[in-house]
Amino acid sequence: MSAPIQLLDDFGRVLAAGATALGVTFVLTPLVRSFAVRFGWISKPVEDRWGKRIIARLGGVAMFLGFIGSAALWLPVTKPLVGFFLGACLVFLLGLMDDLRRMPPYTKLLGQLIIGCAMVISGIRIELFQWPWIAIPLSVLWFVLLMNALNLLDNMDGLAAGVGAIGAGFCLVHAVVSNQWTTATLAAIVTGICLGFLRYNFPPAKIFMGDSGSHLIGLSLAALALLGSWYHSTHVISVLAIPTLILAVPIFDTCFVTVQRLANRQHPFTGGTDHVSHRLAILGLSTRQTVTVLYGLSLGFGLLSLVSITLKPLPALALWLSVLTGLVLVGRYLSRVNVYRLEPQAAEPVLSPSGSTGTFIETMLLHKRRLVEILVDFCLIGSVYVFAHLLRFEGVLSGDLQRLIVQSLPIILLIKISCFASCGLYRGIWRYLGLWDIVMMFRAVSFGSILSALALLYLWRFQGYSRAVLIIDWMLSFLAIGGSRIVERLLDEWIGAAAERGVPVLLIGAGDTGQLVARYLKYETRPTRRVVAILDDDIRTHGSRIHGCQVLGGRGKLANSLEAYGIREVLIAMSDPPGELLQCIQQQCEPRGVTWKVVTAGVIDAL
Q: Which value, to the nearest 10 degrees, does the dihedral of the CA atoms of residues 456, 458, 463, 467 take?
């Protein structure tokens, strides 16, 4: 058989396997739902869960039947696949037992460890030729991590099924690119069962997959990640970075929740409404918006995984650190959302035997914001330095260049972190970034770049080092360090715009007082009002924007604006508004039941 015909045959088999899995799951899910409702296998609202509706569960049964039936029809019988099918059956039974009769967390963890060991014995494991002694325990932990990650991610309608479909889809793409058609067929089957179930699980859900479904998806994704084109790589970055990029959303959610629970003295293995999705919903996003955002993040990370397979280990590491930095920044922002019940504190602190008032970890957590900033800067400095070389040398880093980067990077890190600290970069509150803060960042970055250049000159006389790299590094560093500082403000504005929280307000006055009022309402801690439009008689302000709100025109557009934007309150942001303006506002607002008031710069806090 010729190569093109063989390629079409392989690709057709992949499509047929995915279509079979999708069709079987799509048909069986409503039948399983009816069966679950008849026998009372339903999920009722409880305090530590997000859902507030009675929903049928055991959707994982339909997914498992679709998976096994499609796999038996389209996959060959090999030792790794037989081991995988055995593991899939065991993990399904483990999840089903937990769905029907709740199991203690430690019992379930023991079962997951046994299944992980069985998968490793079958030959599906990480191959680290540099450190073979660590490959087996790391492989078992990988399976346990992904099973728990998908289980924890199944906390909102459509989330686990959608993210699972995206992750399996990118595993499918990787397998096709590397001509691994058996792996591609398995990935297509997992994608199919997720999509077939998603039809009934997308918000508002008609059925939940339960632990039987989430564990099956988690184990499948873990196995697919290890069976990818990087499976036999000799570089640890290739082995670990690409799978973690594909599955970044569930892994990040698991790590974030675990850290937050430990930091707030909560049990890490119990249920709760403290996941990434829950915090986004608390900030004001709807369920569909939240799920869509996390789908988008999964797609973005999957695309980065495709980019990373073309990179050498050092640039791939820089890309992975950049992604990690972004996730840390998002985690820091989401940690502001208070989702834990505060326990009453004792009147007097309990002293430790050494006389201190807390453990070392608790003391560190008091300064966690600054520690996160230092960690973020550490990753950014290293990543930017590598990217500067990539830009200068058009994406090609020779062995000599990589040696020079590794040789000089510790010096660069030490100097820049010290300069940032001495210039006060770790004492700011960046949510309220101002012009002086930007000047301070520019000074700190410039000072660090100049001292770094002098250090390279003194130590190595610039032998082999490019001067242009240092200029590129300075520009990228300013953008990266500045961007990391404004990310909270950008997220606030994006979530505020998407959530549309608060009573719609019309602001009259685009002067200094108007800008102060608009800023206050936009950035107050618990926004109850939002400015949707601004009016001003000064024709020079028409068409301009103040904190994202457009100045529509003068008082002649007051009536139309009240109706078009559903205004419930009008704020007159002027120190001495003319009497005819107040009379016009009163005539337009009071018949419509719209309240209005005059706000001056001195009484903004009274809002």
A: 50
List, as own/partner pairs, every contact residues 361-370 make where C-beta atoms lie below 8 angstroms and the sequence separation is at least 24, other chains included: 365/263, 368/263, 369/332, 370/426
Radius of gyration of the chain (CA): 28
Q: Which domains does the chain have, with CATH numbers?
A: 3-232 (no CATH), 360-496 (no CATH), 502-606 (3.40.50.720)
Nearest to 320 by CA among 302, 309, 308, 335: 308
What's the rounded Cα separation, in Å, for the pair 215 and 150? 7
Partners of 185 in the beta sheet? none
Helix 467-499 × helix 313-334 angle, to 10°: 30
Report the DSSP pairing between strands 55-56 and 42-43: antiparallel
| C-alpha torsion sign, points 458, 462, 464, 467 | positive
Q: Please, which residues have CB within 8 angstroms of residue 236's CB and are 6 or more apart in sequence?
A: 128, 130, 131
Element containing residue 404 per DSSP (H, E) = helix 399-422
| 358 vs 584 pLDDT, higher one | 584
pLDDT, tens digit (0-9, with 9 covering 90-100), for 27-40: 999 999 998 888 88
Asked if 502 contacts 476 with a C-beta cutoff of 8 angstroms, the reply is no
CB atoms within 10 A of CB 361: 9
**Residue 577, exposed/middle/buried by CB under 10 A (0-12, 13-18, 19+)?**
middle
- Three-class SS state of 549: strand
246, 244, 235, 233: which is closest to 402 by C-alpha?
Answer: 235
State which H helix or E strand residue 61 sits in.
Answer: helix 59-74
Angle at 598 between CA 493 and CA 494, to 5 degrees: 5
C-alpha 147 chain-centroid distance: 18
> Helical H runs in 227-286?
236-246, 248-263, 276-283
What contacts 474, CB < 8 A, 6 or more positions away? 445, 446, 449
CA distance 27 to 197: 9
What whole-number distance in Å separates Cα of residue 41 and Cα of residue 54? 10
H-type helices in 125-180, by residue range?
132-153, 159-177
Confirm if 138 and 126 have CB atoms less than 8 A apart. Answer: yes
Rounded Cα distance, 155 and 164, in Å: 13
| Model confidence pLDDT, tens digit, residues 428-484 | 777 667 778 889 999 999 999 999 999 998 888 888 888 899 999 999 999 999 988
Rounded distance, CA 161 to CA 171, Å? Answer: 15
Q: Which residue has the tokens 């087996």?
A: 136
Closest CA to 195 of 172, 176, 177: 172
Give, for 202, the enclosing helix (H) or strand (E). Answer: none
Which DSSP letter does residue 343 get? P
pTM assigned to the model: 0.79
Residue 400 to residue 404: CA distance in whole angstroms: 6
Write down how long the chain is: 607
